[in-house]
Design a protein that fits this description.
The structure is a homodimer. The first copy, chain A, is of the alpha/beta class. Chain A contains 18 helices and 14 strands. The termini of chain A are far apart.
Amino acid sequence: MIEVLRDGTPEAARQIDKLLSRSEGSERVAGDVEAILRAVRKGGDSALLRYTKRFDGVSLSAGELVVSEAELADAARQVPAEISRALREAHGRIEKFHKNQVEKGFEVRSEGIRLGMRVSAVERAGVYVPGGTAAYPSSVLMNIVPARVAGVPDITVVTPPSPQGIRPEVLLAAQIAGAHRVVRAGGAQAVAALAYGTETVPRVDKIVGPGNIWVATAKRLVFGQVDIDMIAGPSEVLIIADTTADPAWVAADMLAQAEHDPMAAAVCIATDVKLGAAIAVEVEQQLGELPRKSIAGKSIRKYGTILVAQTVERAADIANGIAPEHLELFVEKPRALLPSIRNAGAVFLGQYTTESLGDYAAGPNHVLPTGGAARFSSPLGVYDFVKRTSIVEASRKGFEKIAPVVEALALAEGLDGHALAVTRRLGRRGTAASPATKSGATREKKGKSD
Amino acid sequence: MIEVLRDGTPEAARQIDKLLSRSEGSERVAGDVEAILRAVRKGGDSALLRYTKRFDGVSLSAGELVVSEAELADAARQVPAEISRALREAHGRIEKFHKNQVEKGFEVRSEGIRLGMRVSAVERAGVYVPGGTAAYPSSVLMNIVPARVAGVPDITVVTPPSPQGIRPEVLLAAQIAGAHRVVRAGGAQAVAALAYGTETVPRVDKIVGPGNIWVATAKRLVFGQVDIDMIAGPSEVLIIADTTADPAWVAADMLAQAEHDPMAAAVCIATDVKLGAAIAVEVEQQLGELPRKSIAGKSIRKYGTILVAQTVERAADIANGIAPEHLELFVEKPRALLPSIRNAGAVFLGQYTTESLGDYAAGPNHVLPTGGAARFSSPLGVYDFVKRTSIVEASRKGFEKIAPVVEALALAEGLDGHALAVTRRLGRRGTAASPATKSGATREKKGKSD
């Protein structure tokens, strides 16, 4: 059973440190992944097909890489009506929420200078969808919708083939969300195909989506050549509960997190030691009833945490230090506590807002920063699929107005060429030697700290 | 002299490939940088001071790490009045532009569900300012202003000390822009101090600012623990010029780029072969007059490029493939060409809008995506110093409305624990075994492509 720890004790501090240091190393596969990336970059489709045969045990021709229209239609028919309806309803809600994230850019003018920021979608995006039991249609929606809402004109889904075929729910979700093609490829080889392009797979500008260590390492290595989303760490929930909380409901939410993965973390900060104890009992009891009790049990044993804090404000402080992916405010007045929350991926307010709502259908994205990254990262959103471009236009008058400032600063920095580009346009040709050029020699310095 | 290449020839294609593959490897210093990171993480101030002595040749006590108020005031007095005025004017324009980037977040309500996106500044930011001749006060402004406008409450500047002291212009720019402290530390050790915190240097959530290979490698290695800006590659300009362009002005702008760095690239796509030839002559001639001709000459010899394309539209196509950091539209009707530009960090329209304006004072940020990253990255901006948080609140009614969708999808994905968190709140306790649990065994699969 989870031990209830008191805030301020060394045991509590050690447990928080343990929560913050969950991670999987990627070093052990980096060499293999590099080799795969190089091979696909050079060999294109034929390398991609070779790895697909080797790792997924499926022999395909280049013509079979892209899932055909007929197969997509077939898949749609295979999905039970209830699931199909649920996917469409969830899609509608997710799309509606994300439309609020669309940015417009701006243009301002002043004294002969016209300045703007243009916001435009990236030209192509790639979405990785894991195979096997981790092929979640909800993740397909969550990764494609923000790209579509951003206006990305070309979206490629990659997902590993298996002898049983791709799950029909995944193919249906990809269609509902508006992917432009689904490619039967997975692992580092699929990431390579998206990053560099092959004869069949167009090179993309951004790759998103969860994956195993091979996929995560490949994304890390192609970053720079192409943009990527965050490398997702193990999932986590932190629940702040006061005495109004039903221990059974809190426990159910902790177990919903724990069933994801043995590395997942379910944490509760209760304001009362009896409440904490009651939650611990409920967790133990409900765990026995859970189909995925083997996975959830491992997570609960290692990372399941119940802390007791004096007040909800103190609980919020602890939460800010952890910066959890999911934060449930299971308290009497959740809105009153919200301003104290500074770091969290998504906040769920009140007893009816179980995290599951957000995982599937409330509307916000379920791809969230993990492992403390909520200090500086955001949920996946429309903003991840756009780029901004600065637009500058100076008339002669506008140019003349700021020319002296530009010349002064360029010369102060010893960049005479920058100043000269201005000077020439002013009709002067002289090269005013800059102070930095005159005295610069003594400043010239090469060293590790430059 | 730069050879004028015709679009469509193998020589032109090879030159574009060469431009796109400029980069510096970081592998050679990674081991040393890792050791520095570990030492500062463990040793704090004392490790930081030890490396400062070793690499910068300056012995400091912990009490001298932060530049004092008296020194800051001294520095402000040392800067010539003209430079000080120019810095303040530039700061005002940069701040005004960036204020347009402030995002508000949103809240929407529908049928018992209240959803929101909160936008809040990160709590602490760190700005790296290089030492020696690369200590550009304009970069200090460009890196601090977006953080301040975002509302970051604590901004630390780090810059390597030298026996001559920190440039007064840098200290003045940091004050004007509103940094909260300036720390005398540079290199990988300063990045480590920002990422992990020391007794004197607060741990930050985001590190920005340019630096040499040690700094860039350190940023890459601490990424995840803390957010970083893009790793800046060598700078580049692409100028599209039609026959209305003055070859001398085009050449001056190319040289302003080339003087940055031997790895910098100055590229012109001209619509006329005679124009291209005239620009080549001007580049050669003006190069001889440039104080930094040694640096600019190296850049021009290796990466200086003049291409001839049939039309400005074709030139725009080539530019989109290169996705340049800076793009000048030195053509008769720049506004008409703008919609054809899809990938560029900043676009400068018309003959008076030399890139230097944007480097110093027009208002937009001069920290821009390099090396083709403009396909998917943006100029440094206010959006780089904020994080978004999703807010979800369901009433009982709102919960009941979407509960069936959530249960259906959770069960379809085999995540019964997720469904149970909903079921319990509906007052039911039964564990509806999910279809995936029933049939899931055959799908279970471990492999490289999962």
